[in-house]
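Narrative of activities, Objective 1.

The group set out to show that a structural description can be obtained from nothing but a protein's sequence at a throughput compatible with the screening campaign. Below is one input-output pair from the validation batch, recorded exactly as produced.
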Amino acid sequence: MMKPRTGMEVSVQSIQKITEQLQPRFVAGNPPDVIDNSGANMIKMADLIAEDLLADMAELIAAPGKTVSETLFAIVTVMTNGTGGPSRAADVLLVYLYSMAFSQGQFGYATAMGLVLLVIVLGLSVMSLRLTARNSIEY
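Output recorded for this entry:
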């Protein structure tokens, strides 16, 4: 069980004129961690990204899915016709797992490999979250 974090500050505010109130904070280098930029007076995110005041996180959010599913699994499967190449030299874990389950019918073994992979990914995710944790989050 995780211990509760102490010393965190959470602030939730409702702002009518978000551009007028938050733009100076972005320019001063003190932006909030999270904002809901919706409504009639939205901040133009493209301007903030162009001025390096806000990071575009689209690539970061899409990266894990693209890396695993498109790059490793799809390319190896297509290029080797699902065999993994000569002596399975081009095999990666997900292709091997898929092959065990659906080509060789060893569903139990493939399930066990999938669960071990799940535990490893969860462990790495928890470690990453702890290493990158912040003390204050502002909404």
